Amino acid sequence: MQKLYSAKDYQKYVDKKSPNSKLGLNMLKAFLTGGLICMLGQLLMNYFQSRNLDQMDYATLTAMCLILLSVILTALDIYIYIGKFGGAGASIPITGFANAIVSPAMEFKTEGYVLGVGAKMFLIAGPVLVYGISSSVILGILYYILK
Amino acid sequence: MRLGKQTVTFEKMPYITATAAIVGPYEGEGPLKDGFDRIIENDDNGEKSWEKAETKLMQDTYHLLLQKGNTTEKNIHYVLAGDLLNQNIASSYAFRDRECSYLGIYGACSTFGEAVGIASMIMAGGFAEQIICITSSHYCSAERQYRYPLEFATQRPPTSQWTVTGSGGLLLQKDGTGPMVEMFTAGKIVDQGIKDANNMGAAMAPAAADTIATHFVETGRKPEDYDLIVTGDLGAVGTDICRELLKQYGVDVFERHEDCGLLMYDRSKQDAHSGASGCGCCATVFSAYFYPKLRNGELTRILFVPTGALLSPTIVQQGESIACIAHAVAIAG
Amino acid sequence: MGDKLLNAFLVGGALCAIGQLLIDKTKLTSARIMVMYVTLGVFLGGLGIYQKLVDIGGAGATVPLMGFGYSLAKGVMKEVDQNGLLGAFTGGIKATAGGITAAIIFGYIASLIAKPQGRR
Description:
The structure holds three protein chains of three kinds.
Chain A (H helix, E strand, L loop, with lengths): L6 H11 L5 H28 L4 H21 L3 H8 L1 H4 L2 H14 L5 H8 L4 H22 L1
Helix pairs in contact in A: 2-3, 3-6, 6-7
Chain B lengths: L6 E3 L5 E9 L14 E2 L10 H19 L9 E5 L6 H6 L6 E4 L6 H14 L5 E8 L1 H8 L15 E2 L2 E8 L6 E6 L14 H20 L8 E4 L3 H14 L8 E3 H4 L12 E2 L1 H17 L5 E5 L1 E3 L3 H5 L6 E3 L1 E5 L1
Parallel strand pairs in B: 2-3, 4-5, 4-6, 7-12, 10-11, 10-13
Antiparallel strand pairs in B: 1-9, 2-8, 6-8, 9-16, 13-16, 14-15
Chain C lengths: L1 H25 L3 H18 L1 H9 L1 H4 L2 H19 L3 H27 L7
Helix pairs in contact in C: 2-5, 5-6
């Protein structure tokens, strides 16, 4: 049979036919989820601050606590529901980064501890580290030249 | 006998004498739950990995099918099997050490149609008396191969479809009773340039429309000659598009079209987005829903059109669009 | 105290809502958004813009992945100030070592104990 559409026209037609995500609602959910996770972070931070630790330490401690929480929730099969509800609100906070590390580690355990857990752990988080660290090196060099 | 470039008809039509379907727990909560032969309790099916779980699903379906078809392995001349996993491992390992000739085939979610078509031709050629066609898919094994780890917290767009956990098969016999395979229209690979792996229904709809329209042109039949035209797993988006494309080809199926991907889950209650998909989708729905109706006379003739998106994560990451296919099998009760 | 919490909620929520907008509108996957956010965080951190957001939002700015980028940037600049060019290579990971190590070690332990669940 003759094709009815060119690729471009078909894409346009499909876009018209496909239901869109409920953008407003999804954004609101992401806002609430992300906001609450950050608020929890602030609570932890306030607590560590009140213990009179130096600046760098309490930021790191906060991050570590949130990561631990996220790993526990992922292992208990709960974080996925937070992700389902909150979308970007669950993946953009540091808890989402932790989820991105622990979920493939759990998933690929069946392929062994070295090439399964060890290698696949960075399936999704790897790019975050690669691009984050690489861009920071470029920044450092520029900063060294320009300062 | 050849009717056209893509369509053949069988003078001595093979009988579908039995079917079997085993599905996962989530499918077992859907509207077709009473039609399935067995519903497994856990997704892991008592196995250590998802791949092994799927393999066991197919093995169990195979044994159940032999039992329901009142036959034994030594009567089966060929098994035609396929699934979604790399190198067709669920199928190959399901038939490891079995005493029957095994032909592994791959057509993504259209595999079941491909299997029935090839098997019918083998039988019509006089080369076999009993053939089993069987396919499987598993949500968990498909997720880790095609998408993300199961516990990765991410949302699905509303156009996405869910891979069915299930295995379905049928027994084709030269002599017997039951619905018969009348014709087979083998599909062409159609690619309309859709790149979004989360909208496979839209990618597959042109392939389905092409095969169905070709079937009517080459056979001279009309949609009214069938009680139903049953597509594999177009889902809500693909179904809508396929019907409209067919109308533009001059084939009106609005009154008599069903999609297995829409029958599997209760979309108002279950989290199913655009519907179900996977090799196991049309195979289990055919076994649980359409086959009994063909058998008891509720349906006299259907055109069964499994659809497949022949993508791999590698080719999608390389920026290619999704090549699709659909095969049409005319089945008379 | 209450203000700080509210600010964290608002700033963090807004960063996530923007991410959601990008996912839904551009079909970018959440994995790509994560990469984008970190890189953008490094960039804005280097320009000194992100510091202002941290001053306002506190954890609302540091907890999202952009804050991870900001820590990388801040660490790199601090080390360059102290050690010269070598700092460009050591500062980033040094500043974020706690978080990265925690994710790896907790993630590893979790994978020993837990098993992913199927369709629900």
